Amino acid sequence: MSYQDALAASRVDETHAASGMNMTSGNTTSGEHLHMRLKSRQHDGHGSSSSSDMQVFDVSSPLPVTVGGKVVLNVTSFVDPETWQMGYNYMYDFEANEAGHSTTTIVITIVGISLPIFLSLLRFSPGLSKSLLWNEIQRRAIYPAAWGSRHRVPVAGAVIPTRGQAMYIFLISFLNLILLLTPYVYHRPQASFLTRGAQTLSIVGNRAGSMAMGNVAVLFLFAARNSPLLYITDWSYGTYLLLHRWLGYWAIIQTIIHSFMLMAYYMSKDMYKAEFARNYWSWGIVATVCVCAMLPFSHLWVRQKFYEFFLLTHIALSLLFLIGYYYHIWFLYTYNWGYEIWMFIAGAIWGLDRVIRVIRMALQGRRTAIVAAIKDVDGDYIRIDIQGTELKGGVAYLCFPTPGWQFWETHPFSVAFNPGSIPEGSSTENHPPASTSEEPTPDQEKSESTINAPPAANTTSTFASHNTTTFIARARTGVTKQLLARVTKENGSARIRVLIDGPYHHSGQVSSQLSPCSSILYIAGGVGITACLPYLKKNRDKSAKLLWSNRKSGLLTELQPVLAALPSNLLVETSIGGRFDLDAVLSKELAGSVKTGNGILGVVVCGPPGMADDVRRKLSQVSTRNVMSRPYVLVDEAFSW
């Protein structure tokens, strides 16, 4: 029976009841009994049935009156006005607050995704790059660390965001907090919640659970290697991963609030044991435990020291969280309320990203990598030459499908160069490195005396090798340590099967960032040179300088032919065993202003975290000392977890 049919039948029953009353009372007419007096009145007093703030319609009906309860009705009855009003208050609050839960969750999702797009579109504003106001905002409110002088170097086991990143974090945190606290709709009294406190526990707890999934959807998108945001915006993958962690913190906080507030609510009603035994509650516990366990297992120390463990637990706990959330919703609501959609969104992002990775690897095919140790670097660096493909820059994830090598993992390596693009017989006469130390160390003297000599023989293969991509990596822990051990075991060179996922350009739209610059300064430390080389090879129209410092001379010797093949408009300075005077270098490069015709300075830095932070800090200090200094664009080429 439909609602309309039931309503029509009830009206017939009411008419029959009125007719029966007319037969027993000649003074009462049918019209009097059927008249609905809709005068609204205020009820005084307190209690579960009425309150001074509840309006109840004063109505009458010849039907028998019911005041609710669990007894099944077998006759058409008239609901007591106060009972009806309390039920209406509950349903109205429920609908309004449910709509609020959905709205706030959608707001978190839309703002989280659209804000990077909107801010990145500003780069297309005509004249913005040359605006003195905009450059002042960048140097004071975007580039520096949020507090202190460290960004890449961890502080107390955490990465300090830049001020620009901190603004995004503040906005997302503000939205998570304010939308959790308000707005809500309350009508008292009502049928379900006897007290306002009990109602608050329920609706705030439910909103926290809903908002947690809004954060989850965004953080899954930010962590995806193939996220469309990496192509639409000029934000780096490192920035998205940092924001991914902060969104994760809020997802954890909201999940904990959801779990404990609902637990407190059911305990206040003495219903906790009954709810605890239900399937939806058990799966809710699974989801809560998994999302909370990700916090210690994803700590920076764990990521750096036990990356394989972090990766495995992070994926497993993430999937268990989504599964737990799905069954938590399904056992409680099935598909009636749409909460499961958030799991489908997050799961689709995760799954699609993995599918694209597999497709990329399949398109590249299985390759052979020739791995060798680089000489004169104390066993710190290895060279990987992959035959059969030429990648033009960026980051490639390498998978080594070898038994015992965690074949399901992929590891990021910066593309250094393509040996086939290096002319044979290249020398470094066009780029003589200059030492920055007043008294050169033995390593520096060796570098200066050999830099103009014929290139040393390559450790792995001839530079004339065509259709080959070369990577240079520092052998520390994990897979690079395993590769070095394999090379050592096989007397200096090893052939290993490899799958390639990439390349990815995780540093954002670097070309568009540097396009308004009139000159570019590249600062590299150690193996950080590999991230700079693809940009250096393309730099043929702008004045450019490379400052490259190394602890040992072996890496410089290895890359001499590559440096020699760089464009002639590039000035190369190297330092072995020493450091550049960044204050003096940056003061000189930032001298002048746009008005004097010097234009914007691009600064690309890639190297150890301490060096990158020094460059960031010195740029801020020098530009602050001289308010008329050149505006600059800073690109921090770094891969971070």
UniProtKB/TrEMBL annotation:
UniProt keyword list: Ion transport, Membrane, Transmembrane, Transmembrane helix, Transport
Region (Disordered) residue spans: 1-31, 419-464
Transmembrane segment boundaries: 99-122, 166-186, 206-225, 246-268, 280-302, 309-329, 341-359
GO cellular component terms, A-Z: plasma membrane
Tagged with keyword Translocase: no
MF annotations from Gene Ontology: ferric-chelate reductase activity
GO biological-process terms attached to the record: copper ion import; intracellular iron ion homeostasis; iron ion transport
Residue ranges constituting the Ferric oxidoreductase domain according to the UniProt record: 208-324
Main location: membrane
Matches recorded under Pfam families: Ferric_reduct (PF01794)
Localisation per UniProt entry: Membrane
Polar residues bias (residue ranges): 21-31, 424-439
PANTHER family: FERRIC REDUCTASE TRANSMEMBRANE COMPONENT 3-RELATED, FERRIC/CUPRIC REDUCTASE TRANSMEMBRANE COMPONENT
Protein name, as recorded: Ferric oxidoreductase domain-containing protein
Protein's organism: Cadophora malorum
Lineage: Eukaryota, Fungi, Dikarya, Ascomycota, Pezizomycotina
